[in-house]
């Protein structure tokens, strides 16, 4: 596959054609913050934390869904980008009911970790305090909509790794939420295989095993990457 030469933060690098800015930066050792990105499934650009500057464009571009081209010049970190990323994080906290101290993912949450990393010590916007419930109808797992950031990682894993197609997104705007099947209680789902892959993919405490403590909520996502790599290399046969 043909390679393209581009510049990231002043350093010239090469990457394969059709590679995303995010992947090219990762291969060059440049870290770009993300929440909705998950290795092994396609990107949707939902969280907007990976926004970068591309020379010649007057708008910020999502690194996960923007493909590289020859001669591209990318800036991944400056005062403007830090401002936008912090604003995005604050809006995510304000949109739902994120209370870290009483969350099962406290200490193992990507949203919380990014807030620390980007120096977010308060939220400047009014909290919405929506009335979201908890779906505890499943025998083994639960879904707390108060912690959900609509990254859709659970949806993509359910459809494209497990192949069950149980999870999806319903509603628009602030009413958007994750559903099971045709908006049925999760425990009534006829498609869920109880595989737990959606829990491994979740970056917050929205999806959890019943009875888990905060110390047991560390997600081992290498299992998802192993499954994807094994399928791509045809290590398994039907």
Main sheet: which strands, in order across? 2-1-5-3-4
CATH architecture descriptor of the largest domain: 2-Layer Sandwich
User: What is the makeup of the main sheet?
Assistant: 5 strands, mixed
- Give, in order, the helices and strands: EEHEEEHHEEHEEHEH
Helix segment tally = 6
What is the CATH topology assignment of the largest domain? Answer: Alpha-Beta Plaits
Annotation, overall tally of beta strands: 10
Shape: globular
- In helices, the fraction of residues equals 10-25%
Task: Give a short overview.
This protein has helices spanning 21-27, 79-95, 110-117, 153-162, 197-201, 222-232, and strands spanning 3-8, 11-16, 51-54, 61-62, 73-75, 134-135, 141-144, 167-170, 177-180, 207-209. It is α+β, with helices and mostly antiparallel strands and 238 residues long.
What does this structure look like?
The protein is of the alpha+beta class and 238 residues long. It has two domains: 3-77, Ubiquitin-like (UB roll), CATH 3.10.20.740; 93-232, Alpha-Beta Plaits (2-Layer Sandwich). It contains six helices and ten strands. The chain has helices at 21-27, 79-95, 110-117, 153-162, 197-201, 222-232; strands at residues 3-8, 11-16, 51-54, 61-62, 73-75, 134-135, 141-144, 167-170, 177-180, 207-209. The strands form three sheets. It has a five-stranded mixed β-sheet, sandwiched between helices. The longest helix is centred in the middle third of the chain and has 17 residues, at 79-95. The radius of gyration is 19 Å and the shape is globular.
């Amino acid at each position: 596959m043909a390679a393209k030469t581009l510049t990231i933060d002043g350093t010239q690098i090469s990457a394969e054609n059709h590679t995303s800015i995010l992947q090219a930066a990762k291969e060059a050792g440049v870290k770009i913050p993300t929440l909705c990105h998950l290795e092994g499934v396609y990107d949707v650009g939902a969280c907007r934390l990976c926004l970068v500057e591309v020379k010649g464009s007057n708008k910020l571009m999502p690194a996960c869904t923007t493909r590289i081209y020859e001669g591209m010049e990318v800036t991944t970190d400056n005062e403007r980008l830090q401002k936008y990323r912090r604003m995005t994080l604050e809006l995510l906290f304000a949109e739902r009911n994120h209370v870290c101290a009483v969350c099962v993912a406290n200490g193992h949450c990507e949203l919380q970790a990014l807030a620390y990393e980007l120096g977010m010590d308060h939220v400047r916007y009014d909290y919405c305090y929506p009335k979201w419930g908890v779906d505890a109808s499943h025998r083994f797992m639960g879904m707390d909509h108060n912690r959900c950031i609509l990254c859709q990682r659970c949806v993509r894993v359910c459809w494209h790794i497990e192949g069950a197609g149980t999870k999806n997104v319903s509603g628009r705007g602030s009413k958007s939420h994750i559903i099971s099947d045709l908006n049925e209680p999760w425990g009534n789902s006829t498609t869920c295989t109880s595989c737990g892959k959606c829990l491994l993919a979740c970056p917050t405490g929205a999806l959890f095993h019943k009875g888990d403590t905060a110390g047991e909520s560390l997600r081992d996502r290498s299992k998802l990457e192993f499954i994807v790599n094994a399928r791509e290399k045809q290590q398994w046969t039907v």
